[in-house]
Amino acid sequence: MSKDLKKRFDRIVEILVQLQSKRVIKAKELSDRFEVSLRTIYRDIKSLEQAGVPIIGEAGTGYSLVEGYKLPPVIFTKEEAMSFVVAEKLTQKFLDKSIGGHFTTAMYKVKAVLKMNDKDVVAAIENQIVMNKSNYDIFNHEVPHAFTTFFESISNQQQIKLCYRGASDDSPQTRIIEPIGLFHESGFWYIAAYCLKREAYRQFRADRIHSISLTSVSFSKDHISIGDFLTGRTVNVQRTYVRIAVDKDIARYLQWERNFYGFISQEEKTKHTEMTFETRSIEEFARWYMMFADKAIIIEPDILKKSVRALVDKSLKKINS
Predict the structure, then answer these.
(1) Does the keyword Ligase apply (predicted)?
(2) What is the pTM of this model?
(3) Which residue of 30, 73, 240, 281 lies most exposed, with the fewest beta carbons within 10 A?
C-alpha cells in the first residue's frame, strides 16, 4: 500500500470514528480536523457510503449515522493507550473531585478493551507519572461537584444558584447565573455566565464558589457563545504600549510569566533583550516589573516610570519608618 493510500485509509477510518462520536458533524469540522479540503471530505464520505455505512447528509446541517448503526469495538494503539495514562493524571490535578471520579470510572472501561500487551504498557508507566500538588487550591473542596452541576446547567438550560465570594466581597454573596462555558486561565478555572443580578456577562472563579445548586428555572434568554465572551473581554479594554530592556541573564527567566502581562514580541540587542507589551494595567505591570527592576530599563511610557517610582518611594517610607 502506497503512503498516500494508507494516509487516506487511516483518515476514512478516523472519519467513521468521528461520526460515531457525535450526533451530527459538519464537513468543515472534518476538514479542519484532518487539514484537507472540503472536496476531499466529500469524497471520503462517498467512499464510506459505497462501503455500506448508512450516512445521512443534510445541506447546512452535517453528517450523521443512521440511528441504531453500531461500529465494531474500537482498538487503541499503544501510543493512544499511553496518552490515557497522562490524561488520567491530569484530571486528578486539574478537575474537581466529581468529574475526576467519572473519568477514572471511564478509564477502567477503556483499559478493559486494551490488548494485553498495551495493558502491560499502561501498568508499567502509570506509577511513574506523578502530579505534585499545587501551591494553591483551584477548587473549593467543600464543593466537589461544581463542574458536574455546570455541565448539567448548560445541557438542560437551567439556572444555577451560587454562593460566591468575589475578590472585593467581605462575605459570600448569592448569585443566580446562566452558564455559557468554562475556561482555564492563569492557573484557575473560570465559569463564564450571565449574571441576573448584574444583568451582564461575568466570570466566576471556581475556587471562590462556596456552594452551588441547580434550580428548576429555565434560562431567561439565548446567550452568546463562550468564544464570543472571551473575545468581548479584550475588545473594549484599554491597553497601554510598553517597551522595556532586560539584561540577557534574566530575560530567559521571564518567558513563563510575560504572557500574563500582554507580551507581544522581543528583539535581541547586543547587551540586552528588548521586550514589547500591551498591558491592561500599568499598576499591575509596575508591580511585576519591580521583581527584576535592577536588571531592566523602562524605555516607554513615562507613566510606567512614574508608577514604578511611586512604588519605590512608598516602599522606602515603610522601610525607613
Answers:
(1) no
(2) 0.65
(3) 73
